Amino acid sequence: MKLFIDRCTALGDKLRKAEALFCTFLIGVIVIIITLQVLSRNFFSYSIQGLDAIVRMMTFYIAMFGAILATHFQRHISIDTFSRFASAKYRYFLECIIDIWCLIIAFSLFYFSLELVQSSFEFGDIYTGEISLWILQLIIPYMFFNHFMIHLMNLINTLARKK
Amino acid sequence: MIFLLFLLLFIIGAPIYSLIAGMTLTSYSEAEIPLVVIILEFFNMSNIPMLLALPLFTLTGYLLAKSEAPKRLIYFSSTFFKLIPNNLIFLSLFLAIFFGAITGSSGITIIAFGSLVYSLLNDRFSDNYLYGFITTSGGLGLLFAPSLPMILYAIIAEIPVYDFFRFAIIPGMVLIVIFYLHSIFLSKGSIQNRDLNIKAPKNNKNIAMWLEVFLPIAVVITIYNGLLAITEIAAFAVLYIFIVEFFISKDLKKEDLIIAVQESMTLVGAIFIILGLSLASTNLIIDQQIPQLIFEYMSQVVGSKFSFFVFLIIFLLLIGAILDIYSAIIIVLPILLPLASLYEVNSIHLGILFILLMEIGFITPPIGLNLFIASNKFQKSITQIYISTIPFFAILLLFVLLVAYFPALFLLPH
Questions:
Q1: Fewer CB atoms < 10 Å away: N or C end of chain B?
Q2: Residue B250 backbone zone (phi > 0: left; psi -120 to 50: alpha; other: beta)
Q3: Which of B9, B108, B124, B5 is nearest to B62 (CA)?
Q4: Residue B191 has what pLDDT?
Q5: Contact between chains at A27 and B261 (C-beta distance less than 8 A)
Q6: Which residues from A are below 8 Å from B49, CB to CB?
Q7: Helical H runs in B245-381?
């Protein structure tokens, strides 16, 4: 069990590093696209069609990876006044309750996001150009699945810590 | 029963996004709307054009904070403000506003400059005054471009961000003058033209220092003349600061860039997931005509614009005390906007009041974020920090009342 947890944690750490790198890449591409767009608009009076939609989608991807990072580093916005003043024993219970609650929510959202991807696939929805929408939407179940896994690992770690 | 469960989870510190998701799932089930619609609305976030400005400006702030820019900024202001009367107070306010506006966070300002401001001013003021001054002044930058809460407000309220920034200049400046005069009035003895004996940072590069100082000026000029879209300005700000910190000052390395991206995107992700889920809950709120129901109820209790402001101030003070500024904008604004328009309060006037009240929220017990940051920074009890901020709380509240009831004094004519 311990080996399994360690491997999952190591895999999670590697994934987070890869996601941070990918975010850096996306931001670089966005900056280049916008710079080119501004230059071509001002110097050649020409705008490349469809780039805005691509940039918006890249922003969405950055947000999704950011949300995973926020879960990984436990940096989601929350009101921690009560837990701040709680003793170690109570804090342990509070952490467990919060992780269980987040597990339920993450799993529900993961399930319904898969439903969305499935319906986009069945209807053959298309995003700008010829990109199938369901491929782009895959990031949503990926994000919620990661939320689910991170909270599951947190819960197991908290329970193991108690032992 | 379900409401109590959510309240309990909120109190014990469950992430706000999970509570919004839980409430939205419950409400959609009760309204017999397919739950997949929540995810569809969530995905619709990718159609908001201005959204990109938030991650890019956040990254700009993080890159600046990671470099030696804060030290250069202190050196610059100590040289530049030498001839300004009461330059120490001016410098402290300048630093707070500069970093508050660029990073969109008053907490970072307390962490970055708290000790310096304390050491500069501690022989001229009581400790209590200084704790209050530092804890509060961090929020002043939020009324200046490119303040992230103001951009987020403009996105949700669907108002031109340029107009919002332009209208916020006068209230922002007046507030600075009030803080400046208040500090002069309460200082022990003269603080006229005191020499600032601050040495240049090691390997100081003047060109980098000037370029960093020019950034907010360039952003403000570009925003106010409408030359570029806000997302384009944000992209140029990232590119500009990247060139300055990596190729001119050479303060940052490749690893710093990835760390800055990781840290800034963590904050952005935490905000965007709330925003996405709130889009679903907001649509349900509008579908169920909840603002109208609230208005019908309120019109019995709140009969006029005058009493609406009383309600608004009390309500937002309570919200500011329990929610952070981003969550408050995302969650509360969709309900407040239709109410405000029914009382003929325009979105920009409401926005300035909203930001000001959230600034107060940063220093309002029990969970004003700046109180905890300052308590940690100065190793003082929360109670002492609470007490030290009371005069500033009163000043800000008085100012809010003036902006609410006498908008003509502070807002530019349309």
A1: N
A2: left
A3: B108
A4: 54
A5: yes
A6: 52, 56
A7: 254-287, 290-301, 305-322, 325-342, 347-361, 369-378
Query: Look-up: residue for tokens 């961090």?
Result: B138
Question: pTM above the 0.90 mark?
Answer: no
Distance CA B42, CA A68 (A): 15
Q: Distance between CA atoms of B159 and B315, rounded to whole angstroms?
A: 23
Q: Would you report the helix, strand and coil content of chain B in percent, each value rounded to 5?
A: 80, 0, 20
**B228: its two tokens:** 């570029």
Query: For chain A, first and last CA: distance in Å?
Result: 14
The two most distant CA atoms of chain B are separated, in Å, by 70
Segment A60-115, tens digit of pLDDT: 999 999 999 999 998 888 876 676 677 777 888 888 999 999 999 999 999 999 99
Q: For B216-228, what is each residue's pLDDT tens digit?
A: 888 878 877 777 8
Say if the Cβ atoms of A30 and B235 lie within 8 Å: yes
Distance in angstroms (rounded) separating the CA atoms of residues B362 and B183? 20
Minimal Cα distance from B48: which residue of A? A56
User: CB B244: neighbour CB atoms within 10 A?
Assistant: 26
| Six token digits for residue B168 | 């916020």
Residue A160 pLDDT:
81
Kindly list the residues from chain B whose CB atom is less than 8 angstroms away from the CB atom of residue A31: 56, 235, 238-239
Chain B residues closer than 8 Å to A42 by CB:
none
pLDDT digit string, tens, across residues B336-355: 888 888 888 989 999 999 99
Residue numbers of A between 129 and 148 with CB closer than 8 Å to B: 137, 140
Q: Among candidates A30, A38, A32, A37, which has minimal Cα distance to A62?
A: A30
Positive or negative, the Cα torsion across B233, A51, A116, B288?
positive
Cβ A106 vs Cβ A148: under 8 Å = yes
Q: Which two tokens stand for residue B242?
A: 């990247």
Residue B148's nearest CA partner among B410, A59, B139 is B139
Q: Give, as one character, the DSSP assignment of residue B50.
A: G
Rounded CA-CA distance B56/B62 in Å is 10
What is the mean pLDDT of the segment spanning B358-373? 80
Nearest residue to B396 via CA among B178, B200, B99: B178
**pLDDT at residue number B383:** 82
Select from A61, A71, A76, A110 the residue whose CB has the most chain B CBs within 10 Å, as the one to mutate to test that interface.
Answer: A76
Peptide bond into B366 cis (omega under 30): yes
